[in-house]
Amino acid sequence: MTWRCPLPLALVPTDRDDRQDPAPGTTWLPLPPHPGAFGVKRRHHTHEGVDLYAPSGTAVSAVEPGQVVQVEAFTGPSAGTPWWHDTQAIFIEGASGVVVYGELAVIEGLALGDQVAVGQVIGHLKPVLRVDKGRPLTMLHLELHAPLTRCAPAWETERPATLRDPTPALRQIAKV
User: How far apart are CA 30 and CA 116, in angstroms?
Assistant: First the structure.
């Protein structure tokens, strides 16, 4: 699986949660035990995706061509999590499965059944965190699921059967 970077920034791998900002034009690719990494145990669940931190308003583009199969509320009061700001998720099914791009504002007019091209802008990042935890308040939450997936279940005790680790594809982009 070969993906294109979903952000207009170079990915720099890190396993440290030292809260330093990456160099201009880059963003962290969190690796365990970083709390933004895939599969890291958090207070109430295990992290289902990878968080790529970037400024609010940053364009998010499709990592591969595919079809929009779901658009939904992802965080905030409209998603039943009032401790976060309202964000959306868009699910795009392509060659690698269903990529879930969460914690963004989906481009207006992008709808179920639409085809997207690799590199096509599908949304923009917006703040998700209401409380400053010493990390950026804005990030792209990226998940990968098996083909035909239409929901992103929480990883509470057991890893959801559809859930895949997107880190290898992101490492390829970062060339590590």
Answer: 27
Angle subtended at Cα 93 by Cα 91 and Cα 97, rounded to the nearest 5 degrees: 110
Closest CA to 46 of 34, 38, 54: 38
Residue in this structure with the two tokens 């109430």, named with its chain if needed: 44
| Residues 71-87: tens digit of each pLDDT | 999 999 999 999 999 99
CA–CA dist 175, 12 (Å, integer):
9
Stated pTM of the model: 0.96
What structural domains and CATH numbers belong to the chain?
10-174 (2.70.70.10)
pLDDT score of 75: 96
Question: What tokens appear for 46 in the block?
Answer: 């295990």
d(CA 148, CA 162): 9
- Model confidence band, residue 106 (pLDDT cutoffs 50, 70, 90): very high
